[in-house]
Amino acid sequence: MKLNVALLKGDGIGPEIVESAVEVLNAVGKKYGHEFSFTPYLIGGIAIDTYGEPLPKETVDGCLKADSVLLGAVGGPKWDSLAGNLRPEKALLGIRSAMGLFTNLRPAKLYPALKDECPLRADIVENGFDIMIVRELTGGIYFGERGYRDGKYGEEAYDTESYSRMEIERIAKVAFETARKRRKKLTSIDKANVLETSRLWRKIMHEVAKDYPDVELSDMLVDNAAMQLVRNPSQFDVIVTSNMFGDILSDEASQITGSIGMLPSASLGDTKRGLYEPIHGSAPDIAGQGKANPIATILSVAMMLLYSFDMKKESDAIVNAVDKVLEKGYRTADLARGKTPLTTKEMTEKIILEI
Ligand code: NAD
Description:
By secondary structure, the chain is of the alpha/beta class. It is 39% helix and 21% strand. The strands form two sheets. It has a ten-stranded mixed sheet, sandwiched between helices. The chain has a two-stranded antiparallel sheet with strand order 6-7. α10 (312-327) packs across α11 (344-354). The radius of gyration is 20 Å and the shape is globular.
């Protein structure tokens, strides 16, 4: 297969980690007979420096033409004092909206080899955990009507949450399909004891469930879910939830893995074209020093192979290679704990050797 990937390297460690992921994709292409080509576009701080804006039109057009998009990270102290709409991070919302991405998939996996990094007690994570959070990305309270007004007790601010049947049905389908590709267990998280939007959410989740009899659906209130994630994370397979609950729970879930440099993500819409990126930022404190852990970005391309290109065995080859390298004890500086760390490049080479 011939596929074109748009590369948005961005700022800080972005170019280093994207370079690693490209090398890994090329290695997969060579082994399995696919041809990947790459077209770079500017985003974030570097786009501000070059074009005066964080998301130039050329970048948007390029992403919309590509088969899929790989993003490094954006931002850094150089651009911190700019006004809100000119900041590098503004480009992230812009590109998601231009590509019509309404789902965010964020795995939180504790690798057996990295158990010591987990901040939870050893007996809680004895069996590791492997959770996929499916977060609705373009609706809910972050996009509802908002404002300031004079209230009974003076100044007041308000934000409103609303979800339509269409928005809930389409995220439900993504969640059930995702669960089908995994352990077939879906937990829908809401606040149906209080919120109308959650009651509609729950009703529609159960309607859609009828089309997926092979997937076991359960409901959980968000306050309980926040507790269960630290009490017994291995009970979860796939979680589906609204924009704001997903924002908070996915950060909680990433923290209990204890390793920010390891976690990938995917944002998906109606087409096969997705946006794949590590969950971490541009790490300006270590940029250009060869210290960045490339694994989150490498696992992001494993997600791209699975969700955009339907290449399961190729995707598994990357995931298994990462597992093996960690089992063998190789670590970048963020996880080295006194051992001699590998550089970004050396870690990439070790992973490629296992593919
Ligand atoms: P960060 O994720 O960049 O870094 C937090 C800490 O984790 C730092 O000590 C960093 O060195 C370390 N770290 C992060 N990724 C690592 C990796 N792959 N390997 C080794 N260590 C790693 O978060 P921050 O410091 O809060 O933000 C830095 C910049 O990144 C800011 O400008 C912020 O706005 C931006 N940011 C961008 C994104 C994105 O592009 N999606 C996300 C979050 C933050």
